[in-house]
Amino acid sequence: MNKLLLGVLGFTLTSLFAQAQTYNSGSFSYHGDPLPYRYLKPVIDENQKLPLVIFLHGAGERGSDNEMQLIHGSKLFSDSLSEYPALVIFPQCDKESYWPNVNIIQTETGINFQFEADLLPDSPLQLVDLMIDSLIQSGIVDTNRIYVGGLSMGGMGAYALVAANPDLFAAAFAICGGGNTEVASRYSRKTPFWIFHGALDDIVPVEYANVMNAALTDAGGNPILTIYPKANHNSWDSAFAEPELLKWLFAHNKSTTKQ
After folding, report:
1. Do 48 and 42 form a contact (C-beta atoms < 8 A)?
2. Per residue in 111-123, pLDDT tens?
């Protein structure tokens, strides 16, 4: 195990192998750019490799307090840690930034999101990408079981991160997000997606879910689309209540699933 890399990530051997039912704090940095994160992990032995889950929060949880990103979704994983043991990481995006490279245009009818084809460079999501690489190099991650999910801005980030790494993730989910349909063919056959959205969403309209579902399907994928007829933007409440979500997510393993 690469102790230097673990130290850079804010982990230590003691913390890695100690029992933790709550989220510990850490920070990753690259060329002076910081990425605070909170992480959850089960008890493991020194030679055990863990599934890795990256969860990307929404715009309302941005900041530098390394706390806000736990508001939505963290309890889902902590309550299920014994059933689905994994290294779960909640990074935090800076207040003035956005996970992927997106042009946000306010119009008379609402907000229009234009997703750039070059999704990661100079974005906080690039730091997440580099952090994942460092974790893989450290040897603690089961590379056949890496997952990503997110809500709103984080759902957009999930699409972008998978598009930038089409061979990396075993499965992904996006809640009330959207993505670049032109790059869906990069990963549609390789990464199973579960898409959630509220039909009444007035922040990120449900059309963004519909067009991503269509793009992934047209490119040969088989995404799952769940639309909540009475939900507005906070469709994450319904998504996190789905009894099959974690079972579906962790059932995917690249070593046993034909890509």
Report:
1. no
2. 899 998 777 878 8
- φ, ψ of residue 68 to 5 degrees: the values are -60, -30
Long-range contacts of 200-203 (CB under 8 A, 24+ apart): 200/229, 200/230, 200/231, 200/232, 201/176, 201/231, 201/232, 201/233, 201/235, 202/110, 202/232, 202/233, 203/111, 203/152, 203/176, 203/232, 203/233
* Alpha-carbon separation of residue 207 from 43, 55, 112, 213, 214 (angstroms): 42, 23, 11, 10, 10
- Note the pTM of the prediction, 2 decimals: 0.91
Closest CA to 114 of 103, 99, 98, 122: 103
CA-to-CA dists, residue 258 to 7, 25, 30, 191, 252, angstroms: 35, 36, 34, 10, 10
Q: Name residue, tokens 């989910």.
A: 173
The 10s digit of each residue's pLDDT in 158-180 is: 999 999 999 999 999 999 999 99
Q: How far apart are CA 124 and CA 89, in angstroms?
A: 15
The alpha carbon of 166 is separated from its chain's Cα centroid by a whole number of angstroms, namely 14
Which residues 6+ apart lie within 8 Å of 78 measured at CB? 21, 22, 23, 40
Structural domains in the chain, CATH included, are: 3-251 (3.40.50.1820)
SS3 10: coil
**Measured between alpha carbons, how far apart are the two ends of the chain, in Å?**
29
- Residue 232 is which amino acid? N
Are 257 and 221 spatial neighbours (Cβ–Cβ below 8 Å)?
A: no
- Paired tokens of 71: 């508001």
- Per DSSP, the chain holds a count of helices (H) and strands (E) of 8, 10
8, 130 contact by CB (below 8 A): no
Calculate the average pLDDT of the chain: 90
